[in-house]
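Recap for those who missed Tuesday's class. We walked through two folding examples back to back. For each one, the amino acid string is listed first and its predicted C-alpha cells come directly after. Nothing is annotated here on purpose, so try labeling regions yourself before you check the end of the notes.
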Amino acid sequence: QVRLVESGGGLVQAGGSLRLSCAASASIFSINYMGWYRQVPGKQRELVASLTNGGSTNYADSVKGRFTISRDNAKKTVYLQMNSLKPEDTAVYYCHVNVGFGIWGQGTQVTVSS
C-alpha cells in the first residue's frame, strides 16, 4: 500500500511562498488522481488542488492564480507551490491519492502571519 509523507510546511508572512512536497513510498506513475486538501479546526477538509495522470488540474477558487500543483513521477512526489500566501491559507495541508480507495498523508501545518 502506498504511504504518503508531506513536508514543506511552516510559518511564513503574508505575501510569501512555500512549496509543499508529498513523497510516496511507491510508484505514482499509475495513480490517476492526486490532490492537496486543507483543514482548519472546526471546519471540513476542503480540496485545494488536484491533478490527474492526463494533466488535468482543478483548483479551489480561493487559490486560483496563486497555487500550482505538479507531480514528478520519477521522484514519486507531488508538489504544491503556494505563492502570495494569505492568512486565510493557514491550515493543515494533506496529500491524497485515489488508488481505488483513498490514502491520506499525515498532514503538514502551514501558518501565514499577517
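Example two. Treat it independently of the first, because the proteins are unrelated.
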Amino acid sequence: QVQLVESGGGLVQPGGSLRLSCAASGFTFSNTVMRWYRQGQGKEREFVATISSNGGTTNYADSVKGRFTISRTNAKNTVYLQMNNLKPEDTAVYYCNARSFPGVWGQGTQVTVSS
C-alpha cells in the first residue's frame, strides 16, 4: 500500500524558512520521480517542484524558482522541500506525490506565511 506522510509545516513570518519532509512507503522509492504540490484555500492544486529518481534533475514552478529547493534521501525513502524567503502567497497545504502513483496523496502539511 502506497503511503505518503508530509510533515514540517507551520506558521512563519514573511522572509522566513521552513523545511518540509515527506516519508514514503509501499513502493520502490529509489526508482520513482517525486513531486511537491500545494493547494491554497479556494484554489486548485498546483505543481511546485519535481526531482528525478536519483536526485540529479530538478524542476520548479516559476513562482518558487530561486527560493525553494527539492531534494531526496533514497536511503530514508524521504523527499524534502526547503523553502526560503517565504511570501504570504506561499500559504497553502503542501503535498508530495509519486509520479508512478498520481492518484495517491498524503494528508498534506499546512504552511502559513503571515506577520
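Answers for example two:
The chain is about 0% helix and 50% strand.
The chain has a mean pLDDT of 97.
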